Amino acid sequence: MDSGIEQGDLKSTVRDRLIAAREGLHEHRRRQADRSICAHLLRFLDDRDCLHLAAYHAFRGEPNLFPALEALHHAGRRVYLPVVRDREMEFRRWSPGVDMPRNRFGIPEPLQGRLIEAAHLELVLMPLVAYSASGTRLGMGAGFYDRRFAFCLDQPDSGPLLVGAAYSLQQVDSLPAQSWDVPLDAVITERGLQRFRD
Known about the structure:
Layout: H1 3-23, H2 27-46, E1 52-54, H3 66-74, E2 78-85, E3 88-94, E4 115-116, E5 123-126, E6 130-132, E7 137-138, H4 144-148, H5 151-154, E8 161-165, E9 171-172, E10 186-189, E11 192-195
Parallel strand pairs: 1-2, 1-5, 5-8, 6-9, 8-10
Antiparallel strand pairs: 2-3, 3-4, 6-7, 10-11
Helix pairs in contact: 2-3
């Protein structure tokens, strides 16, 4: 069997299993984990000179970062959220209370905020389905983040810090990686920050 098909089957199996596990978290445990993730995120950024950062709107059981994003906004940080356009993704400025219509996937997006080039972001908090101990990220399968941050593969020191946001149950021993997969620099879970690269 073709190794690409085998990898695709493995990713699909892992994706289905971990989306179900993530969505199946008890609401009390989820709220506790989300509070811890937000607290770790705010501590991580407390001593970092980071003005422009991107995050995401929680979807299908992803950690809810909005309490931290609101605190960061009120502290003067500029927060951006992804907006999907066909096969591409761009980032628009977000602020609490802004109108957020849903895109074709059902995810709310800010449509009126100012655009920022991906290369000008200093930190990107990325949703994920699974992550490995080496920083390989498995997303939902559409490739939006890999395409948008492909330049980080050639210029790893010039792009933003790429940090996954996840629950610790989403860590797996290993994941198949393709040449176009953009690795994480770190991940934040309810247990804290785990770095993959300095």
